[in-house]
Write a structure and sequence with these properties.
By secondary structure, the protein is α+β, with helices and mostly antiparallel strands. It contains 4 helices and 7 strands, in the order ββαβββββααα. It has helices at about 25-35, 125-135, 145-150, 165-175, and strands at about 10, 20-25, 40-55, 55-70, 80-90, 115, 120. Strand 4 and strand 5 (about 80-90) form a beta hairpin.
Length: about 180
């Protein structure tokens, strides 16, 4: 990544207290985040995170909420999406575990580690990445079924492993009407 990140919030580990850190991007930052993630808008976004320090490791635990507008993967029409995701990140110095040259096995707990150098790290960029991971690129809006029918993407010609599911879904919606 070049230039200034869309959501830049530097944290100095020497200034961490027990108080939560709240990140709420302004309109320009939300516009830039929408562009970065290929969605129509980020109408609102808020992350509240508690930081705790253990040596040179910082544990970030909290919640990310956002209201976004994204295009439907089928119809292309914009629709609103609410995001509510937990955040659990660990900021570590490179090689802090002493295994820089050793082959290590990565577990699910290890996947949320972000390396930083010196005494500061960018919590804003980590929150922005969390937003990006929470956005479903295949989300379907309310007009998805109509678009499928209009373009012949559903119906009797459906085959493969999802054809049975489509038939069940069609049968269920017919019985509830």
């Amino acid at each position: 990544m070049t230039g200034t990140p869309e959501l830049h919030r530097m944290i100095d580990i020497r200034q961490i207290t027990g108080a939560p850190v709240v990140i709420e991007p302004d309109a320009d930052e939300r516009r830039r985040l929408a562009g970065r993630f290929g969605i129509s808008a980020v109408d609102a976004m808020r992350a509240e995170i508690r930081l705790s320090v253990e040596g040179e490791t910082v544990l970030a635990r909290g919640r990310l909420t956002a209201s976004i507008i994204q295009p439907c993967a089928i119809s292309g029409e914009d629709f609103p999406v609410a995001i509510d995701e937990p955040i659990l990140l660990r900021f570590v110095h490179p090689g802090a575990d002493g295994s820089a040259d050793d082959e290590i096995e990565i577990t699910a707990d290890d996947c949320d580690e972000i390396e930083y150098e010196g005494m500061t790290f960018d919590l804003g960029e980590a929150v922005a990445q969390s937003l990006g991971l929470a956005i479903d690129p295949f989300a379907e809006g309310p007009e998805a079924d109509a678009a499928r029918q209009k373009h012949g993407l559903a119906g009797e010609e459906a085959s493969g492993p999802f054809a049975a599911l489509a038939a069940l879904k069609a049968g269920k919606s017919d019985s509830t009407d």
